[in-house]
């Protein structure tokens, strides 16, 4: 993948920005709050239509404005996301070469992998955060997965509604059958893809360490559902299935959520992201763009050297507060752009 050009209008702290990229790694350097992460986020947003942060999506539009535009050029394809506030609600419209598309058909045009400092939360945070990382990677390479997951979530809502009606004495247990069968069908597609993804990730050897991403599947089938049925009706929610899946990040058989040092947790997150990059590259037959936010600051010299080596394999865009941590030879072969309060200087 190669992103040639990025254009922003009213995105975060940028009023108007037109950027060209070349074959070299791009390094955005600047003080805190200059707008470096916002630039990586803009590329991530163009790729996934998602912010990549937990804030309200309306915050993507520059303060005081009510519309924003992000466009990018890859090879001969123009990607475009238009955001507009209408009645205090954010409306997003996506286009490929000027033709409107549904988001589900749009994703996949610009595969990216983003590493950002807050990703360390995936080690210690909630299972939903880990599923979010997993789903975003899989959705970019596997449209069948993406569609099945969406359908799974829709069926889940319907099935929970029926459970609630049964609890209230308004529905019969056999009304569940249709939704149960549908749920099992889509659950299988989702779990199979997650199994394959984590297996492939674990086969990938990384100089960062022997990390194992251990799938904790909440298996969904008829037998297990029968065991849970009474409790499900009482709770009026579906208690098992991919929406309750999790995975654990292990190093030398230790669960890093409990036993990891901060450095280990950070390295595990980076290892997860770099393994994701290889998985996506293998599935797509082309390498995604790599976005690295403040990756070097807490890494030791060996790990830093490994990251520099990975950077050379695909288009990579880096954000950093200072250049001191980076090897001279790497700086000499990179394009360094200074970011100051919403302005990028060559
Ligand atoms: P750091 O080195 O601390 O990571 P950074 O260069 O990555 O800094 P960004 O996270 O890109 O900085 O944020 C830059 C600034 O953008 C912040 O001051 C933030 O308040 C501002 N900002 C965020 N959203 C908006 C918005 N919608 N409108 C205007 N400014 C915004
Ligand atoms: Mg930042």
Shape: globular
DSSP summary, beta strand count: 15
**Straight-line N-to-C gap:** 23 Å
Major sheet summary line: 6 strands, antiparallel
Question: Could you characterize the architecture of this molecule?
Answer:
It is a single chain. Helices cover 42% and strands 25% of the residues. It is of the alpha/beta class and 346 residues long. It has a 6-stranded antiparallel sheet with strand order 2-1-4-5-6-7. Strands 8-12-13-3-14-15 form a 6-stranded mixed sheet, with helices on both faces. The chain is globular. The two termini are 23 Å apart. Bound molecules: adenosine-5'-triphosphate (ATP) and magnesium ion. Keywords: ATP-binding, Cytoplasm, DNA damage, DNA repair, DNA replication, DNA-binding, Nucleotide-binding, SOS response.
Give a concise summary.
The protein is of the alpha/beta class and 346 residues long. It has 2 domains: 172 residues, Rossmann fold; 170 residues, Glutathione S-transferase Yfyf (Class Pi), Chain A, domain 2 (Up-down Bundle), CATH 1.20.1050.90. It is built from 11 helices and 15 strands.
Write the layout of secondary structure elements.
Blueprint: E1 3-11, E2 14-20, E3 26-29, H1 36-48, E4 67-74, E5 77-86, E6 89-96, E7 99-101, H2 103-106, E8 112-115, H3 121-124, H4 127-141, H5 143-167, H6 176-203, E9 211-216, H7 222-235, E10 246-251, E11 254-255, H8 256-259, H9 262-284, E12 289-293, H10 301-311, E13 316-320, H11 328-332, E14 335-340, E15 343-345
Parallel strand pairs: 3-13, 3-14, 8-12, 12-13
Antiparallel strand pairs: 1-2, 1-4, 4-5, 5-6, 6-7, 9-10, 10-11, 14-15
The structure holds adenosine-5'-triphosphate (ATP) and magnesium ion (MG).
């Amino acid at each position: 993948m190669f992103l040639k050009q990025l254009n922003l209008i009213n995105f975060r702290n940028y009023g108007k920005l037109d950027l060209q990229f070349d074959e070299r790694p791009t390094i955005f350097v600047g003080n805190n709050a200059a707008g470096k992460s916002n630039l990586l986020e803009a590329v991530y947003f163009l790729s996934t239509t998602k912010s990549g942060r937990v804030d309200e999506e309306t915050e993507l539009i520059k303060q005081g404005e009510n519309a924003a535009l992000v466009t990018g050029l890859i090879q001969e394809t123009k990607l475009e996301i238009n955001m507009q506030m209408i009645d205090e609600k954010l409306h997003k419209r996506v286009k490929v070469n000027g033709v409107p598309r549904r988001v589900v058909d749009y994703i996949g045009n610009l595969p990216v992998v983003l590493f950002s400092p807050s990703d360390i939360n995936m080690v210690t945070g909630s299972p939903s955060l880990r599923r979010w990382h997993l789903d975003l990677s899989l959705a970019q390479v596997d449209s069948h997965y993406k569609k099945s997951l969406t359908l799974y979530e829709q069926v889940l809502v319907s099935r929970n509604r029926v459970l609630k009606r049964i609890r209230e004495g308004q529905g019969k247990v056999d009304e569940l059958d249709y939704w149960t069968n549908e749920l099992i069908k889509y659950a299988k597609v989702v779990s199979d893809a997650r199994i394959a993804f984590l297996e492939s990730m674990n086969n990938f050897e990384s100089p960062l360490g022997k990390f194992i991403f251990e799938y904790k599947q909440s298996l969904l089938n008829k037998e297990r559902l029968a065991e849970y049925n009474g409790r499900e009706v009482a709770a009026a929610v579906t208690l098992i299935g991919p929406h309750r899946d999790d995975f654990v990040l292990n190093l030398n058989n230790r669960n890093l959520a409990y036993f990891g040092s901060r450095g280990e947790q950070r390295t595990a997150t980076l290892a997860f992201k770099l393994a994701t990059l290889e998985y996506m590259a293998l599935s797509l037959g082309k390498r995604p763009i790599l976005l690295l936010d403040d990756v070097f600051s807490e890494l030791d010299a060996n790990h830093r050297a490994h990251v520099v080596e990975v950077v050379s394999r695909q288009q990579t865009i880096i954000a950093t507060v200072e250049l001191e941590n980076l090897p001279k030879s790497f700086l000499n072969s990179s394009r360094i752009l200074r970011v100051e309060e919403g302005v990028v200087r060559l």
